[in-house]
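Title: Prediction job returns without error message
Component: structure pipeline
Severity: low
Priority: P3
Assignee: unassigned

Description:
Job completed but the reporter wants confirmation the result is attached to the right record. Sequence as submitted:
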Amino acid sequence: MRSRHSHTERFSGRVEAYLAYRPRFPRGIIAFLREHGALPEDAVVADVGAGTGMLAEIFLEAGHRVIAIEPNREMLQACRDWRDKRPALDVVEGSAEATTLPDASVDLIAVGRAMHWFDWQRAHREFERILRPGGWVLVATNGHRDSGAAVSNELSEILRRWRTDSAEAETRRDFNERLQEFLDTSSWQRTTLHHSMTVDFATLLGYAESLSAIPRPGERGYEGMVAELWAVFAEYQRDGVLVTPLACELFLGRLRADVTF
């Protein structure tokens, strides 16, 4: 099993591609949270595993104070680079298991694309500590998988097949089931927001290269992955661009009290 340190460092060297090519989160997340009373106008949001701040961005646009918590130094610097333009953003070097935040200091914990890297037992204790009474947890995924479109399914399968950590990927197949042990499912809310990204081939390849487990140029498997991506792009593109449907799955709930990790 990989150490947490290796999880922390696995995006090093990929930040430029991450910033340039990762799809942004749909703004409909804010409406979903407001609908369920999870985001009052004065809510303080902790974006845990914030990466470059893509999820934090939608909360800042909605007028909230956001604390971006990230352990990777390069990702952290990417957040800090635009902090001057966002006075409501605080950037903290920390992790899901040790955020460094004060007790009962946030109303909503938001996690985007990072939950599967956490030590869930330790993260649960830390979330309990920093959430105010009645606080919420939002977990958001965002990618090709589960969009329902043929092209998205093919792209998702290619990226799964060429992962360099296939054994670790197998352990995450029960993600939804494990999340039901983390959150109180008696009152949780789930939905899927459908959106898309339009890419040329260079952008599609840049997106693939931003993924932490995909081989980098020069590494074993890279050329094979590129060839398969090109074949799918060539089949589905129109006038040199490809519209790829995306699915952003949202899981919203309060922490479960009787955890069984």
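Comment from assignee: result matches the submitted record. The chain has one domain: 4-145+165-196+245-253.
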